[in-house]
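Re: folding output
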Amino acid sequence: MTTPSQTVGPFFGYALPYDAGPEVVPPWRPDAISVRGRVLDGAGEPVPDALLEIWQADGNGEIPRRPGGIVRAGHGFSGFGRCGTDAAGGYWFSTVKPGATGGAAPYIAVLIFARGLLKPVFTRLYFPEDEAAHASDPLLGEVPDARRATLVAERAGEREYRFDVRLQGEGETVFLGF
């Protein structure tokens, strides 16, 4: 007998979200940026129990390859963050703007875990000021022009970006298959 698939979440709240999870770097660092947004369902309603993970290179485009993803003390930048959404579907990260890697424009890899999903969905967050690099990015080159905007964050301040994730429906975020 085969066991049926189960959807992801709601999450057991022990150790998945953790206090320092959204702080890839401390917000007081001079190179820190803030990434905030909301996770929305197909009707545009907030998803209050989603979990987002980010993975990224550092400001020089170097991918961290040492231990210390959860406890960053003594390890500096880990390239990893995790944040659960609040009642309004909101999330936030304090990180650094990544450098370009492997011919791609600078981006942050984003994984979204949410109820109703059998597996997490993957997307990328690109930065609006890198428009020239977007033209030669291999992944963005495969995305139809009309959908690319769902992968580009909006500038919300000097060192602040907004990136909403729409799980389905009109304006659905582009998700990647691996």
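--- second protein (sequence, then structure) ---
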Amino acid sequence: MKTAQAARLIIAATLCAGLAACGGRGGPNLGPQDSPDMRPEVRGTTIWDTFRNSENPNTTVGVNKYLWNASLEVLNFLPVQSVDPFTGVIQTGYGTPPGGGRSYRATIKIADPALDARSLKLSLQGPGGAAVEPGTVRAVEDAILTRARQLRIQDGRL
């Protein structure tokens, strides 16, 4: 019998709390809508701005296509595990370069639409997460940048 009384008490308390939440404003400046940060002229955006399509998502991708294609071509011996052209990340599995004896895996991030060395971030790992010599990483970055420039020249956009 006590569980039924406890259940009724919980239901009554819940209904009272819900009813209190629906109550009107008690004074002139008690609501959150009156705070200075919530005024539309200060806030600058509304909920409707979320639904407004002001930009075409197909034209706002921040990835350089020459760096993207050059990365895939230069590292074509590595199996691609995941690609995300919208964030500019390519992740590969382990593979051995032609003529090499050590396997690598790579994560490439193209962070900018510019054809620039600063736009390319490359991380190489050996088996078991072993570190790769900085000279090797630099050589692969240089190969990707060189191939990207070649692709741009072939495209005729200098």
